[in-house]
Every structure is written in C-alpha cells, then in structure tokens.
Amino acid sequence: MKKILLSCIPALVVLGTSQASAQTLLLENFESYTTPLTNQVLFRQPSFSGSTSAKLDATPNEGVVRTVGGFPLGDPNNVLHVAFNFKDSGAEPLWLRLTTFNAPILPNPTVGLWPGWGLQFDIYPSVPLYVTALIRETEANAPLGGNGGSSGTIEFVGGNPTQTSGRGKEVPANAWTTLVFDFGSDPVFGFTGNGVLQGGTDGKGVLEALGLATDPGNTAPINVWLDNFQLIPEPSTVALTVLGGLAMAVWGARRRTA
Predict the structure, then answer these.
(1) Are 16 and 25 within 8 A, CB to CB?
(2) In the chain, N or C terminus with fewer CB closer than 10 Å?
(3) What φ, ψ does residue 57 adopt, rounded to 5°?
C-alpha cells in the first residue's frame, strides 16, 4: 500500500491516557470486527447528521467495515468504507458532517487537546476532498477514547468546509493519504463555537465528526475509505525525531559502505 504522507509520524500502537504519558493511542483500526458491519463503528451513516443531510441523496448512505484485498488495501485488512451522494450542487458549498454522535460502537471518542497533541488517520477518497476535524468542547472527564458525551460547542480544525476557500486539508483522489490534525497549530473556525479550541477542565474534548467537503460537480456517488485512527502526542516533535533518525540511519549506512 502506497500512501501520500502529509506528516512523517510513526504508527506507534501504544496506550497512553494522559498528557504526561506522551504515547500514541490507537482509537480504531477496524481489525477486530467480523465484516461486513454496517453503520456501527465510530461513525454514523452519512445522512445521520442534520447539519448536512439535506445535501445528500437517499442512497448510497452507509459506513461499512469491510475486509478488502487489493484495492484499496487497508492495514492490514479491514477498513471503513463510507458511501454517499450529494444532490444537485445548487445548495453549495457541498460538505458532509460524518458524525460520531452516539455511534453504537466507540461513540463520541475523547481526544486530548493538550498543546501539541493531534489526530492521525488514513483516507482514500474517490474524488478530491477537503477534510476537517470537528472537535466538541466538553467538560466530560472521560479517558482517551472513552465516551466523552455530546454536550459542548463544536469547532472546525484545519479549515472551514462551509466556505468557498480554506475548506480543509486537501486530499487527492484515488490514493492513500495520512492526515494529521495538530490541535495546537492547525487553524480553528467556529461551527457552533467561537473559533477558539478550548479543552474542558481536564484538557480534553471529543472527536465529534469529520467534515468532508468537495468542489462543485462532484455529485456522482462518492466513496471514502478510512483506517488507522490514532491520537498522537507532539506531532511536530515526533516528526522531527523520525526525520532525524532516518538521517542518522542513512549516514550510518553510507559510512559502512564507504
């Protein structure tokens, strides 16, 4: 599987439940389920969100955990396949709020909003997309990944899909891309909030949704594959560490062959 990396961060699957632990927490990689499993894990079906459901046709409308072999290959087998179709593009801008609100499995997952923390996942869309993370500001003191509830205002992180520019992180069609949302440095825009990302008293919030936006004309059925959702500490620091390690390895290899 070839991925376009928007951040060079390793996929460390190590439990970490506090800012001090500074270790990556795997939220979901969809590998523990018997497939297919429809509209159950982490996200609700596309039409569930009242914010954007009026922009969608009745079908297709599902988020299915699937076992795939070949195209597009997940890591290693199961992925979440989301399918939807925008109606005539008169009601622009076109965007989908793919929500975690009270999902049957892994609802309202708690994320750490401490400085430098972020969210990482892999995405493969059939059309070019602009992607944002919708973070709910909540006071619930749940463990990372636990149900943080559905109270509190919501902020866009990484862009604003309701606008005609700056709509989110750009993801090309027909390729795997690893996206990283840095809660300390990515731009924040108000959805139901004030445009300032604020954790609760415990410094945490909730991954309320993903915002998936596209350009006018992309109204044919859209397919999106998602995998490997992780919470990562200090994205920029880890990336620099990885790059430094790679540089040292290359330097060492060159010395051995000199």
Answers:
(1) yes
(2) C
(3) -75, 165
